[in-house]
User: Fold these one by one.
Assistant:
Number 1:
Amino acid sequence: MTDTQPPFLAFALPDIGEEEIAEVVDTLRSGWVTTGPKAKRFEDDFARYLGEPGLQAIAVNSATAGLHLALEALGIGPGDEVIVPTHTFTATAEVVRYLGADVRLVDVDPVTLNIDPALVEAAITPRTKALVPVHYAGLAADMPALLDIARRHGLKVVEDAAHALPSTCGGRLVGTLDSDATVFSFYANKTITTGEGGMLVTRDPALAARARVMRLHGISRDAFDRFTATVPSWHYEIVAPGFKYNLTDIAAALGLHQLRKADAFAARRAELVARYNAALADLPVLRPALPPAGERHAWHLYVLRLADEARIGRDQLIEALFSARIGCSVHYIPLHLQPYWRDRYGLRPEQFPHSQRAYERMLSLPLHTRMSDADVDRVAAVLRAALA
Ligand SMILES: *Cc1c(COP(=O)(O)O)cnc(C)c1O
């Protein structure tokens, strides 16, 4: 019997080439599998990719770890409040709780689904210490407005750039803006991947030094390096109860080659997005917000929203796609609906009307560099049959 079902089209897929495989094998044969020369090279290459002098890149084993390290280094702690968009993954907010500080969730702009600067300003209290904007789906948040608010209120800014490699804001790459730190993710479904991994980027030398120490058990490398000439290499100093957040050379081996492909990956994603946009133009859907003229959008996600006149609901549409063997997802179930966040802060959907409305109507279509144009057409045909 022949199988007449089409192959399953994954929502996201890593794009790992022979270069990555050879580099990982080289690492395995080298005798050095944990953090070492390749993690260091990945950091140097990443800073060079962003292309501005004075930036330090600190490789970590997840973006979650990087966000935690950045807020820790900025001194966030009990009694403090940190402003986070409700329309994000829980990692953006959970790191605030790791430090014993509290999260102040705010709603997003209904068009971009990025945090709304006016609502940020309204949410500031005397306890507010920092702000963690997310570049949702790869579209840069309104950083000029957010940085202006932060400056006027003396707040720190850590960008959650898990979706935003490579994205620009005002013609500058995310990672080179004037925030205190920016954190990228190399999780399996992100625009480049190391399986698990992340990069903390900052031009603040004190933040970088603290993050490097806390990344590895609170071992002071400065003390270590200062004394290597006179003290045998077994000597080290613990200056804080640090974490275990270092990136392995096995993972960095993947990252070295993924980074070199980042621009080509982004170009291919943009082509797929353009094809979706054209194919879906006459359906009762809201296509994703486009970046301002001249700006780059990383297109981590292609998020569609059903228009009011659509004759079926979002859940039904997802069922239709899965029946046609097409993967999809929802980004995100907003934090204000999640039991932990909802109950801790007594949150109600009416407090976040834009995120709530978007959530109820949204789905994320397959978008990755191993998709063909024909795959986009196949998804569009299923949407057309369900909606037209
Ligand atoms: C993926 C993601 C993270 C966490 O990244 P990890 O590398 O898995 O820790 C944080 N924030 C957002 C918005 C993400 O999508």
Number 2:
Amino acid sequence: MASPLFLCILLVVFGSYLSTISAAGNDKESFVVVSTSSFQTQDVCSTSTSTVMPRPDRAGAVVPLLHRHGPCAKSPSTDKPSSFAEALHRSRVRADYIMSRALRGRGTTTIMEGKVSIPAHLGTSVDSQEYVVTLGLGTPAVEQVLLMDTGSDLSWVQCAPCNSTDCYPQKDPLFDPRKSSTYAPIPCGSDVCKSLQSNHLGNGCSMNDNGTQSQCGYRVQYGGGLKTRGVYSNEALTLAPGEVVKDFHFGCAYKQRGADDKTDGLLGLGGAPQSLPVQTSALYGGSFSYCLPPVSSGTGFLALGAPSNTSGFSFTPMTDFMDDGTSYLVKLTGISVGGKQLRIPRKVFEGGLIVDCGNIISHLPSTPYAKLRSAFRAAMAAYPLIPSDDDDTCYNFTGYSDVTVPKVALTFTGGVTVDLDVPNGVLLDGCLAFTESGSDGYVGFLGNVQMRTLEMLYDARGGGLGFRAGAC
Ligand SMILES: *[C@@H]1O[C@H](CO)[C@@H](O)[C@H](O)[C@H]1NC(C)=O
Ligand SMILES: *[C@@H]1O[C@H](CO)[C@@H](O)[C@H](O)[C@H]1NC(C)=O
Ligand SMILES: *[C@@H]1O[C@H](CO)[C@@H](O)[C@H](O)[C@H]1NC(C)=O
Ligand SMILES: *[C@@H]1O[C@H](CO)[C@@H](O)[C@H](O)[C@H]1NC(C)=O
């Protein structure tokens, strides 16, 4: 099965791990003792070449996948990593965006109740993608640091010329299509351009500078007021040294609003024709996988193409959310905390979970959320809760050198049980990284905190969503 078409982008995993993890206490299997020093943000990007080796059937060059705020990011954020409250807010706005996009044109206005709202005063980017990948664009290739997003399709990069009113400040120089020998705007009448309309991404036509060609306009409107528009274009995309996708369609972005990210653009990994995996499906089969590193100083990977041997994965069926063609939906059937299965009627999970690497925190319907929260609080009763107006579950670990955290496991359709990483797949900033999505039966979200250290395989061959533990 090893085929030359089979591309992988592997990753170097830098060794920044929890300083202490050991089995503990009364139930060795169900609780993990974590050193509180592992909760500190690490400022140094280790350049150690010690790697977690990818599976042997993955050969290829290395493209690291980083945490947006991590020290290994090429353009690390100068801002402090977001607080839990901010993460929660971003996460809710994000959820609202995905929901409203799926409902577009359906004449339905509400499906979620109350929990999700967009404050009008929020002008900053609240679209909460968190992980970046570095790819080469153009000829010669220029490195672009792009946010990874399974919740949208069209990839875009800020392009020169663009002034500070129209483009947000980014760390790297703007991509300049005039300096690339392979850049070409996509003509307006082309099928590629017409296909944008059907995904609500079209934005008419514009003439090039000398008025000789009509170019294809694109436009994406995300949650929280973030917008981008520009010229839909063809360009060479270098995924890894020697691994070049000719004629990659992306948006050369000339007008952005509401963004405060320092990255150069966004990489769309959704299920519609504009996304990277779908555009390259003739080359790599349309499947892709990634592993999000557990801590901000770590590195994970993004790989295009399914591994030939998937014996290390557990698969659950996957569909797209409300036939929106973009979002990936799976179904949760149960939750356990500290080895104890919570008693939750199956029915409340009926809305499913959108698998969204651009969303930080997982959202569950009201009953499973309440049961998870109370079981977690009971298991963590030894530690002081920080009082909060919201119903957050945040702990003050000051004075503790280590903390005993219960394992949390999610079970999906098909009996696939996934142990979340402890503590990084469960706690964010000392807070339980779950929130309520709405009433029982409503759709929820599987956020990127919960995906940490798991290889998530989006199998375009109909295999569904695969999970592989301990992948980065
Ligand atoms: C920025 O560029 C746009 C488009 O070229 C132009 O309309 C706008 O006036 C410019 N703004 C400033 C402050 O130069
Ligand atoms: C007009 O611009 C295009 C690129 O945008 C270029 O290929 C073409 O040669 C130009 N034509 C003239 C007459 O300058
Ligand atoms: C797939 O990998 C597993 C180990 O992960 C190995 O035991 C098995 O033999 C492999 N199967 C094939 C067909 O190579
Ligand atoms: C955490 O606990 C310490 C002492 O135990 C206290 O000084 C500090 O104010 C607490 N912090 C919060 C946010 O409650």
Number 3:
Amino acid sequence: MSTATHCPYCALQCAMHVEAGPDGQPAVRPADFPTNRGGLCRKGWSAAQLLHSPQRLVRPLVRTGGTGEFAETGWDEALDFVAGRMAGVREQHGPDAVAVFGSGGLTNEKSYLLGKFARLALGTSRIDYNGRFCMSSAAAAGIRAFGLDRGLGFPLPDVASAEVVLLAGANPAETMPPMMGHLSGPRLIVVDPRRSATAEFARERGGLHLAPRPGTDLALALGLLHSARAQDLLDGDYIGARTSGFDEAWKYAAAFWPERTEQVTGVPAHLVRAAARALGTARGAYVLTGRGAEQHATGTDTVSAWINLALALGLCGRAGSGYGCITGQGNGQGGREHGQKADQLPGYRRIDDPAARAHVAGVWGVDAGELPGPGPSAFELLDSLGTAAGPKALLLMGSNPAVSAPEAGRVRDRLSALDLLVTCDFVMSETAAMADVVLPVAQWAEETGTMTNLEGRLLRRRAVLDPPPGVRTDLEVISGLARRLGQPDQRFPAGADAVLAELGRASAGGGADYAGVSPQRLEAGEELFWPVPGPGAGTPRMFLEGFAHADGRARFAAVGHRGAAEEADAQFPLIATTGRLMGHYQSGAQTRRIGELAEAEPEACVEVHPDTGARAGLDDGGWARVVSRRGATLARVRYRAGARTDTVFLPFHYGGEQAANNLTNPVLDPVSRMPEFKVSAVRLERSDPPQDARAASSQNAGAAAPAAGAGAGRRGPARPAGG
Ligand SMILES: Nc1nc2c(c(=O)[nH]1)N[C@H]1C(S)=C(S)[C@@H](COP(=O)(O)OP(=O)(O)OC[C@H]3O[C@@H](n4cnc5c(=O)[nH]c(N)nc54)[C@H](O)[C@@H]3O)O[C@H]1N2
Ligand SMILES: Nc1nc2c(c(=O)[nH]1)N[C@H]1C(S)=C(S)[C@@H](COP(=O)(O)OP(=O)(O)OC[C@H]3O[C@@H](n4cnc5c(=O)[nH]c(N)nc54)[C@H](O)[C@@H]3O)O[C@H]1N2
Ligand code: SF4
Ligand SMILES: [Mo]
């Protein structure tokens, strides 16, 4: 056995072979591919370990009436129970009382079928997904500027030949290590409040590190635009021929001369000038944003300000330069196109557009009037669960919001208030542990499907092995539930290729057109970048002929700086920002269960400048309690001499009392509905080690997790099975 496929984790989707290792268990070998060029990070190398982990779920679990503990059950009983309860809730409270929460980790086929399931089998408008927490601000700003949004509008290897690359709030040295191979040639300008691994990489190679106070990127981007104009570096011909709205946008930049920019952001004026000069004089330059620029209540406007800079320098829609958002999850790109978003139908269509509704309803064989309208965004949806007017039941696929949602304590309360929580997962995540029903599903190497990576490139995920006995695929779960909810069999096929063919028809003519994508073409090794409307090659480089707005021009956005929702004050004198470590993925549900990863990063940490730590009475290597208005979290102190003294950093990969999201502020961006994960006002206190530190880290990677009884997290009355 040796099968070519792609990594289960991030959007770089590194190519790999899965084959039998020395112990006979599946193991990973990297493959050469344009994005990863034979590299993998340590998560990719160890990814196969979860396939045969003793912590793997292999039987449906339903909480029993008597004890409130999980009991193993058969698939028919479990699916009958779930469909029966969903139908009952809908009968009693109406279709919007059943909600669905999806994921940018799901294949294109799953994303599509899940959206269709919500709209048709449940008739609910209550569906959104974790991508809302990811790159929704960049997507909104991209649509605003270009008329259409694709993470990178060009193949990743293009950036290697640029002279300068500016990375705003992205730390690929930890979040996509093999990408650094493409970034070793260009001079890097890294915008990050922390001296991240990527900032170090830039400094070592003669690049620049600009360390703004979290939440002030918009001002910094305005300052760079101001300084570029002052140095006569703008591309006037391009602005005149290919864009509109420069004058209105400039009004906001006019006031941000470098010294003023320094006052607001903390970035020295000479660095603002130097960065503008480097970017503006480069032959070939890219501006790339990551979550650091995007996960703010001002995220959309902030990305718009970075795009304005790129437009003013004439970088977009040209070969050899550009703006891009580095998408995050494995299918962060495809997951945002096929209708699991509250306001969306397949093919990047809007659910409130009559023509889009008519097209998709036609493919689905229903009347457009049967399709529900737009629903609330991810956090608003989670925050309404179990309230008088909110959903009473939730089907969750591919997310662990008890750990990863903002103000997670509040979200856990809402999850507990549900009458029915159903999760599909392959491990007992913190959210699964709160569920009434847990359905054990297949993992990446056990199923077929397609993914769309950060470049908009279509990839084939191939089944290498059979799932363990008793495990079903997500598509089989959706299909089985739909049938039990009275849908005709052929409307919800469980075969990935059949779903892809239908997705192609549903997306045809939309922005993200997959009509020409087929398993045969992918198996034949064709390089396909969407839109792929037909048999042609697709679109590796977008907007070369014109932008997707009706007039073909890109639009400057008139955006001004405003501060974060929460400022530091006497009670909460520091800003906490959050993000990622190399060795864990997201909520950590998968990677905390892989021995070598859990051992390397067994517990939460907080990065603190030594002076700041000393002032709070902390010791390097000791424990701190980090407190915000919303809650507290425990983390081991890591002194970082290069850190800002007004800012601390926490990874969000841990649950319970070590969850960074106990602190975070769920204030939302008005356009994208993105929560402000990157700015919370906090204070630091010295703390004893957490009660669960030892137990948690040994249990994370340890042997068999108990199946029955694993759900101690769930409060509230027990529910009878089979009701
Ligand atoms: N190891 C690992 N890799 C991953 C993931 C993972 O969980 N672990 N997740 C994947 C996913 S889904 C995503 S979305 C990507 C995310 O990839 P990145 O965007 O690279 O990840 P983050 O660590 O969230 O944020 C990047 C940087 O933003 C900085 N930052 C914080 N506040 C601000 C600010 O106000 N302005 C600026 N300019 N920077 C700020 C942080 O210090 C951090 O270094 O990674 C993907 N890859
Ligand atoms: N404080 C803070 N919070 C953040 C962020 C931050 O930077 N700071 N980043 C946000 C971002 S960018 C993201 S993307 C989210 C991610 O956070 P989550 O949405 O929680 O993502 P994961 O931790 O990947 O959770 C995926 C869950 O689904 C399971 N799973 C994985 N693949 C599949 C599949 O194919 N099918 C099914 N049924 N299950 C699957 C996994 O085992 C795991 O339990 O977190 C957000 N939260
Ligand atoms: S960089 Fe991303 S895709 Fe590549 S091996 Fe690491 S987690 Fe997997
Ligand atoms: Mo993400």
Number 4:
Amino acid sequence: MKIPYVNLEAQWKEDEKELKPILLNILKKGQYIGGDEINEFEKKICKICGTKYAVALNSGTDALTLGLYLLGVKRGDEVITPPNSFISSTSSIVHIGAKPVFVDVLKDQNINPELIERAITKKTKAIMPVHLTGRIAEMNSIIKISKKYKIPIIEDAAQSIGSKYYGKKSGSFGSIGCFSAHPLKNLNGIGDGGFLTTNNFSFYKKAIMLRNHGQSERNIVKHFGYLSRMDTLQAAVLNFRIKKLNKIIEARRENADYYFKNIDENKYLLPREKKFQFNSYHTFVIQTKKRDKIIKYLKKNGIQTAIHYPVPIHLQPASKFLGYEKGSFPETEKQSREILTLPIHQNLTKKELSKIVKTLNNY
Ligand SMILES: *Cc1c(COP(=O)(O)O)cnc(C)c1O
């Protein structure tokens, strides 16, 4: 038995009958940019995220870039963020001309609020927590800091659609929430896609312009913008799949529950879900000192795993100019050696789950 880390073929098999006519209809109509599908998608996202506005974009990366632009982050400013994210949390900060200021993380892989306050300077213009694995960061403390210093929050919520914290929804905590609809995310398109959420009307209006070359109307350019629109085809796919999102998250939570009940916690560290959390399990990450050997052992047994992420951003060659070094963020670095992402997708069978657990516990 081979157990892949993701199984998009299984998803397509499940969707094929209903999704094919939807795709064909878009191709036939010939409206490939904009249209009703985009508006419908944005309305649905507002409901899911509990925000007044949503803007459909071409990627989570562009959601972060436009989000920083909307907050007025400029050359020379600083943005606080953790170093253990996907690269584009940081690259979006760099591309806007600002300086990423890293802050180490907690055992649960999310930014450590106690360290945020110490990293604030006169130049800090935004705090960007990342809700890694689909677990929302410690937002109560982060919001307190944000209010105390009047520094806005931009959430990297790319992994956390549908997640909650004290009942409040991912993407509704900060001034702007940034999401990805990449094929590997829980709400996934058939190519790149993303969106941002906000309760701020002027951010919303401006984001609509920015994604479309900065045009306020045809041939009138208010601000030099970007090309960051979501394709109509992606919106159509997402409108279809969004109906299944709750089920997808439920299936992932059931898989997580199985892992929590059955993986030997004397051998592996499992970051448990707290009472006030509702995690979407974009990924399921365990921690162990024997990580590299266990990956090989699992692979030998047909089980594919992943590491999110093996090289912390502050140790990437591209980050050299920032002046960080080995030892700058001990918890992040330790985790980069010990974290292991297990398959958790909604199409896993009970048999597959049981084999993964048995193999792990047998090691
Ligand atoms: C996926 C992801 C992104 C980027 O999203 P894209 O749609 O691939 O641009 C950003 N941050 C995090 C934490 C992600 O997981």
